[in-house]
Amino acid sequence: MASVTTLQSDDRPAWEELFCGYNAFYGRTWPADRYDRAWEEFQRGDRVRALGARLDGRLVGIAHFLVHASTTSPDVCYLQDLFTAPEARGRGVARALIRAVGAWASDQGCDRLYWLTREDNHTARRLYDQVAENRGFIQYVVPL
């Protein structure tokens, strides 16, 4: 079973490798300063937070999340990024991260935890369909 903790300063190289993998999955490349900015945000822990999952002491999964206001309920928690190293998939890493983020959000008084994924992300959706309710929303984006 994966153990989940906050990210420590010495996790930076492994975290960046995982976050690069996440971005590559979605066809994105980021300049180094964006990774620096994200890492700094996680270390402050006031706007965006991060957890890491370990198997045998090695960081193999990451979750980035934030809390925001809702007009229809108490605050909600958005799981923005979730990624498991390919060699660790199928070993409960993503499930453990989702559970840990949910527990954290519940402790903060959040009404719910939610996230987005691509419709064609069938591997992840097999897990998501087991641990969450698909409410059928479609996302629209206006780049600014």
Written account of the structure:
With 144 residues, this protein is of the alpha+beta class. It has one domain (3-131): Aminopeptidase (3-Layer(aba) Sandwich), CATH 3.40.630.30. It contains four helices and five strands. The chain has a five-stranded mixed sheet, sandwiched between helices. 24% of the residues are buried. The mean pLDDT is 96.
Concise account of the structure shown:
Helix content is 36%, strand content 23%. With 144 residues, it is of the alpha+beta class. Keywords: Acyltransferase, Transferase.
Please supply descriptive tags for the structure shown above.
4 helices, 23% strand, alpha+beta, Aminopeptidase, 144 residues, five-stranded mixed beta sheet
| Tally of contiguous helical segments | 4
Form type: globular
The end-to-end span amounts to: 41 Å
Residues in helices, as a percent range: 25-40%
**What is the typical, i.e. mean, pLDDT?**
96
Strand order of the largest sheet: 1-2-3-4-5
CATH topology term: Aminopeptidase
**Which ranges are low-confidence, i.e. pLDDT below 50, for 5 or more consecutive residues?**
none
Q: What would CATH call the architecture?
A: 3-Layer(aba) Sandwich
The CATH H-level homologous superfamily: Gcn5-related N-acetyltransferase (GNAT)
Keywords: Acyltransferase, Transferase
Organism: Micromonospora sagamiensis
Protein name: Acetyltransferase (GNAT) family protein
GO molecular function: acyltransferase activity, transferring groups other than amino-acyl groups
Provide the fold topology.
Layout: E1 3-6, H1 12-25, H2 32-44, E2 49-55, E3 58-68, E4 76-84, H3 93-107, E5 113-114, H4 122-131
Parallel strand pairs: 4-5
Antiparallel strand pairs: 1-2, 2-3, 3-4
